[in-house]
Amino acid sequence: MRIRPAALALLAASLPLSAPAQDISGMAGALKVSSTNERTFVAAVSYTQPVGSYNAVSLSYINEGHPEDHHRDGMAGQFWLRTKKVEQGLMLGAGAGRYFFFDTARTDDGLHNFDNDHGWGSIVSLQARWQFDNRWYAQAQINRIRPSGKDNTTHLLIGAGYRYDGVPGAKLHLQNWAHDDTLTLSTGHTIVNSLRSESARPFTLEYRRAAGKYVDWTVTALDEGDADLAHRRGVATQLWLIRSLNEKVEFGMGGGPYLAWDARDTQGHGTRLTGLLSATARYHVDRRWVAQVAWNRVITDYHRDADVILVGVGRKF
Predict the structure, then answer these.
(1) Which residues in 281-310 are b (16+ Cβ under 10 Å) and which e?
(2) Which residue would you say has higher pLDDT here, 14 or 264?
(3) Which value, to the nearest 10 degrees, does the dihedral of the CA atoms of residues 152, 294, 116, 44 take?
(4) CA distances from 313 to 3, 148, 206, 215, 274 (A)
């Protein structure tokens, strides 16, 4: 098990907590594998926070498509140097940072002919953004990723984003942020990170408690569902960094240990300590009810990584 991706996510998100501005963008485009010239799609979602007039930090999820015998994605934390922020017009930037990748790779001697490889690499980027006068912006970006022991890739992406200027970012601007204990019931879709992407129906029960203006703590009971390669159940605890986008919506990244029992563990260990890396968006309907969407990556040491995508309803008390 590796906890380092969660640490990267928390560090990248926590650096600019005192800054009021923030933005979220989505991009898609084309990817080229350097060693083979193979081409496939690429998609990314990024959270960016300015630090002063010329710098920013970002946290991105990047899906590197499906080159032959590989399904790779990962999390990137970057520091940016940019031209001066403008209310409307062109802004240019260059970024560099670290990339933690998850690669489902075909192999002749691995379990079920695939391995879930994890590792670190570097990422450098060039970016051009056109800011409109209504907080929306268009964006083009080039990424170069050099992962340790894996093929280098180049990405060309275009997309759009929204800038949340003037939002304080503290947890829903509550005067007493501690009054946000929530019990949330969720279901959705589990996808095993194999070359066949076996799926199942998960169910979770999450207890969430506000531990600070920007920090939540959760304990979650998970049943990932009965897929062909895995049927895990267990309990996870996570620390989260939370940012409010407005008075109703908040976004957060979390990570922590996940103690699970796998009924289909082919190595016979049964109970294993794994890792859980997550992102969530929460919409506070009123003072009592909240709707929640979450993506969770289960990180294992026995080639049974999985994505657990959840939609749920919570009751605050």
Answers:
(1) ebebeeeeebebebbbbbbbeebbbbbbeb
(2) 264
(3) -10
(4) 28, 40, 10, 20, 26
CB atoms within 10 A of CB 158: 13
268/23: higher pLDDT: 23
pLDDT digits (tens, 9 = 90+) for 221-243: 999 999 988 899 999 999 999 88
* 176 and 310 co-located in one domain: yes
Percentage of the chain surpassing pLDDT 90?
66
Pairing verdict, β 249-262 and 114-131: unpaired
- Which of 66, 62, 65 has its CA nearest to residue 75? 62
Cα dist from 241 to 55, 103, 135, 208, 212, whole Å: 21, 26, 24, 12, 9
pLDDT per residue as tens digits for the range 87-146? 899 999 999 999 999 999 998 765 568 999 999 999 999 999 999 988 899 999 999 999
Same domain, 136 and 178: no
Same domain membership, residue 309 and residue 207: yes
Pairwise CA distance, residues 220 & 208, whole Å: 8
Task: Report CA dihedral (72, 73, 75, 79) to the nearest 10 degrees.
Answer: 80
Higher pLDDT, 210 or 186: 186
In this structure, are 52 and 139 located in the same domain?
Answer: yes
Report helix, strand or coil for 6.
helix
Assigned domain for 131 exists: yes
Residues 130 and 90 sit within 8 Å (Cβ to Cβ)? yes
| Same domain flag for 51 and 127 | yes
Both 151 and 185 in one domain: the answer is: no
Q: What are the residue ranges of helices labelled H in the chain? A: 4-14
